[in-house]
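Quality-control log, excerpt.
Job 1 of 2 completed; input and output follow.
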Amino acid sequence: MRETWLDDGETKDSPQWIYRADNENYPRNEGQNWKSSIFMPRAASRILLEVVSVRVERLQDITEEDAMAEGAELYDNHDGTFGGYGAPMTYRESFHLLWQSINGPDSWDQNPWVWVVEFRKIEQE
């Protein structure tokens, strides 16, 4: 995976990768700026992913498990229950609300075809 970064090494032979996600306020030298992820060399990558599967499906066919994998969250009422007051009661409902907040109020109803790409993190030595 690529991310915003900079090389704070003394020489080209001894790079010291600094990642913006971990060091937003890193004290940079004059003229030293964060570099876009598109320019990150493979050697600087700290997370390596392998594509495990790819499929196409309709948006509304998302399962509860897939919604969880997408990062949808439940809202805890702090009494052992979830949802209420318009809050989602399932991960799928939460994903539905998130999708609409990003893509517009009627985007869920359009039920577009979407790519589902599953990854596996490869442990680096």
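Job 2 of 2 completed; input and output follow.
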Amino acid sequence: MKGLSEAQLSFKADTSRWSVAQCIEHIALAESLLWQWTQGMLKQPAAPEKRTEIKYTNEKLIASTIDRSAKFKAPEQLQPVGKFPSTAAALQAYTARRDSTMAYVATTTDDLKNHFIVHPVFGTLDIYQAMLLLAAHSERHTLQIEEVMANPNFPKK
């Protein structure tokens, strides 16, 4: 995002596609929502019996999330509709949440493998997988931003 003009941040290849600014807003919203969701589930009792409900390996979860050939409609609460005062504010919120998440993952002793969420696309995931999903989701939208910027009509300034 550094050095991009407002025209570049708001450029959309067509009305069905997101701009760079919208991608940034979306990942900022998703980072916060998924964090809150996982932390809420960690407050519930461990449920190791749910491990049998997991359908994705860690590797398949990451690959499926990053795969840009599969399109998903973001849930309403994660739709980019200008919830931040600026793209810079969205990026700052994302970065702060991501830094905090990374610090948590590096130091936690929480039982991430025996607490679960039920994701609307991937089904049952343990919290460890939810953290992998969070990272892969950001990668997915980084790739999307690169696609936007590679468009031949992307503004030069």
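Post-run check on job 2. The chain has a mean pLDDT of 95.
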